[in-house]
Amino acid sequence: MKLTRTFLVALVALFGVLSCSTVKNVRYFQDSEAGAEFAIAQANSITIGPSDKLSIVVNSKDPELAGIFNLPIYGHMAGGSMNTGFQNTANQVGVYTVNDEGYVDFPVLGKIQVAGLRRDEIASKIKDLIVSNNYIKDAVVTVEFAYMYVTVFGDVKTPGRVSIDKDQFTILDAIAKTGDLNVTGIRDVFVYRKENGKQVCHKVDFRSAQDVFQSPVYYLRQDDIIYVNPNNMRARQSTVNGNNIISTSFWISVGSLLTSVTTLILAAMQKK
Length: 272
What we know:
This protein is of the alpha+beta class. The protein contains seven helices and twelve strands. Helix 1 runs antiparallel to helix 7 (248-271). The longest helix is centred in the N-terminal third of the chain and has 25 residues, at 2-26.
């Protein structure tokens, strides 16, 4: 009986160690405490490159003057006729695609180089061209990202493409938009970024605030790929019925463990 008690105590202790290990592997920012300060990687705003898409809208007190600088919006009217207009709305915005040389073909102004520029720099450049050529004195130019994404997949709540909605878009923004990592997701997160014609892999340890905030991929770029590996338990699970059913091999392992424990207990009881 003494051996049985010893075995059970050891078993409880083992589960305790495993539990502590699990918590340590799951918690974010373990190097943080009240008053802690962490340097942040140099801020990088999204810059535009070939194949990116932009919404560019020119407004003025005179809508007719501004209209000639906006892409026409085509829509079908009743009876199948075509309605053409130049007034952009929140739901109807002309989109420009940056060509391989880094230019957009803009109404009236012609080709404008935008590659390597931020949104505010593009807006300022177009406004200066319109005003300096005496087209519109009170021109207001708005530039927004269109169809610009990063991809997040692996062991997160809702994997998929995540839209970039601000100039300084961080890895924390992207993860938050997916609903966070699952508990079974490994906190060493990989970010793949195209650099000089190659996909370069960066690792970010979410258990360390310092590692996250100082990472060269803390500020994301369009087309970055984020991957979260599952832990061993998750990797062994079946995907049947939305990951609710655990694989046969798991149950065989559990059965084997229970059999071993039962055998040891019975053997101890026979010796008493």
